[in-house]
Specification:
single chain, about 425 residues, alpha/beta, elongated, binds adenosine-5'-diphosphate, binds magnesium ion, binds zinc ion, DNA damage, helicase
Length: about 425
């Protein structure tokens, strides 16, 4: 007999194959287990609960933090012919009443709610009378106090497992930070949850790190090796983006700067040039990148150490979206470590927060200093296991590093 989840995938969503992780998550939910799914942005988390929702029938409740996110999802589901509804404060009363009638009549498969709406006594009481088969908590990192996206309304969701003891719950997030993940598992599931981490590998991106000596020269020679290709160069300071862009321009490379201190017009003009022309190098602070989806970015070059391994992963992920060979290259030096430590110490934040930030920095430094396959370290951090990749500097260069200088720097940094 045909696999029902595959049939839904094909007939409803029009896809022939599950992405890494989607089938395992679906399988676990159909077997009645709780799941914490950790997958990067764009990996396809929505289908991880939408497919089981349709296989299970009955009603699936989806908790989502933002009305805009819900509306997008519902529009997409309705286009696919799926009965999806939301009840939220941006709709007028009549629309909410009509939605509730459909839900109560059993016509709705997926009901999207904000956490504060779901967790009212009246809503919970009304839902308890319905045939609820699955609960999905999207953007589940919002429950973690340590994360940047903490939402107090999410804390209430820890009551769900007691209120609906027989309903499998799936929590979804792209945040793979170990502390956050443990927090989610503890709060939503009291630790009793199957955690699935998948889809983080970007095998076409070659990973490399080089001791920082003369950043400008090192950048120029790297960029010249990728002449004619589009690339992103990340710098720590605004001033440096402008200096680096000017230096590249002086050496015949089409380069533009981007940082939050520029006028909105200048930023937009540079961003448009980067998006529409090919072969432009964007020299930017981390202000650049959110929502940038340019498929043919051939490389991401870090002239300075990023803030964490997660930030690094996010940033290099902007390269090679077209699946072609791409490169992530970083310059790494002692001064960077010191600078990052100062950043953390100067922050106006609780001691526990700083302790964690230093821990994350240590993890990143470990990645920079390793002689092991970098991809193994990177994926290992996200909880994925992997074989040596053959596409990082350490795999490609098996001769042991005898760079006494780099080592001395690290020792002296302690
Ligand atoms: P996430 O929530 O993880 O960021 P989404 O659920 O929004 O990702 O999905 C990202 C994109 O991937 C969507 O356009 C979706 O249609 C597409 N997608 C998801 N699963 C598959 C699949 N199995 N095959 C092809 N495309 C998929
Ligand atoms: Mg999503
Ligand atoms: Zn490797």
């Amino acid at each position: 007999a045909e696999d029902p989840k595959r049939r839904v995938l094909k007939d409803v969503f029009g896809f022939d194959d599950f992405r890494p992780g989607q089938d395992a998550v679906t399988e676990a939910l159909l077997a009645g287990r709780h799941v914490l799914a950790v997958m990067p942005t764009g990996a396809g988390k929505s289908l991880c609960y939408q497919v089981p929702a349709l296989v299970l029938g009955g009603l699936t409740i989806v908790v989502s933090p933002l009305v805009a996110l819900m509306q997008d999802q519902i529009a997409a589901l309705r286009l696919a012919g799926v009965a999806a509804d939301t009840i939220n404060s941006s709709l007028d009363r009549d629309a909410n009443v009509a939605a509730w009638r459909r839900v109560a009549a059993g016509q709705t498969r997926l009901l999207y709610l904000a956490p504060e709406r779901l967790m009212t006594a009246r809503m919970l009481e009304a839902l308890a009378r319905l045939d609820i088969r699955l609960i999905a908590v999207d953007e589940a990192h919002c429950i973690s106090q340590w994360g940047p996206a903490f939402r107090r309304e999410y804390e209430e969701l820890s009551r769900l497992r007691d209120i609906f003891p027989y309903v499998p719950i799936i929590a979804l997030t792209a945040t793979a930070d170990e502390a956050t993940r443990t927090d989610i598992a503890g709060q939503l599931f009291a630790g009793r949850v199957e955690t699935l981490v998948l889809g983080f590998d970007r095998p076409n991106i070659k990973l490399g790190i080089e001791a920082k000596q003369d950043s400008k020269r090192q950048l120029l020679s790297f960029v010249q090796r990728h002449a004619g290709r589009s690339g992103i160069v990340y710098c720590l300071s605004r001033k440096k983006t402008e200096e680096m862009a000017a230096f590249l321009e002086k050496n015949g490379v089409r380069a533009l700067a981007y940082h939050a201190g520029m006028s909105k017009d200048a930023r937009e003009a540079n961003q448009n040039a980067f998006m529409t022309l090919s072969g432009v190098v964007m020299v930017a602070t981390i202000a650049f990148g959110m929502g940038i989806d340019k498929p043919d970015v051939a490389y991401v070059f870090h002239t300075d150490l990023p803030g964490s391994l997660e930030a690094y992963y996010q940033e290099i992920g902007r390269a090679g979206r077209d699946g072609r060979a791409a490169e992530a290259h970083m310059l790494f030096g002692l001064g960077d470590i010191r600078m990052r430590r100062l950043f953390i110490d100067d922050e106006d934040a609780p001691a526990e927060h700083k302790r964690r930030a230093h821990g994350r920095l240590d993890t990143l430094i470990g990645y920079c200093e390793t002689a092991q396959c970098r991809r193994q370290i990177l994926l290992g951090y996200f909880g994925e296991s992997a074989m040596p990749c053959g596409n990082c500097d350490n795999c490609l260069d098996q001769t042991p590093h005898s760079d006494g200088e780099a080592e001395a720097r690290i020792i002296l940094a302690a």
